[in-house]
Write a structure and sequence with these properties.
Number of helices: 7
Strand content: 15-25%
Strand order of the largest sheet: 1-2-8-3
Largest sheet: 4 strands, antiparallel
Order of helices and strands: HHHEEHHEHEHEEEE
Amino acid sequence: MLDTLKDRFGRHPQRHEGISWDEVEASLKQHPEALDSLMAMEESGGEPDVIGRDPNTGCILICDCSAETPAKRRSLCYDDEALRKRKRNPPKGSASEQATQMGISLMSEDEYYHLQELGEFDLKTSSWIATPPQIRARGGALFCEKRYGRTFTFHNGADSYYAARGWRGILRLPA
């Protein structure tokens, strides 16, 4: 996994200006459990890469950088509450539960918009993002995509699922 991440890091320097590979590798060696999360991201089609640093915590941010939402993380409703409430034709699972199992988080809206500044992502698919509690309490959830050269945030019922909607995750790696 380290070799794969190092290679991708080297091929996309515009994603992580000001962060060296030595810094990333040292942090991964201090937090080897993160490699399990990165492997799960990779195996599900996420193509994880470093996209910057959290300005509040200093954590190195590693997220799914696949061109489209990861193929093995689509056709899912937003969370397990929505999955339990779905009476007919339930999906195979939920985005938030998969993220928890992988040891990562759904991207926030700000993180998703930052990712879109680094390249072209989700031109044919869409991705669930972390949804504010006040929206989720009313049964909704948020997702994002890029169309017409612009990034959009939309809403849907949390229990909805589509073949072209999945989720992108983010790993916060202590520096």
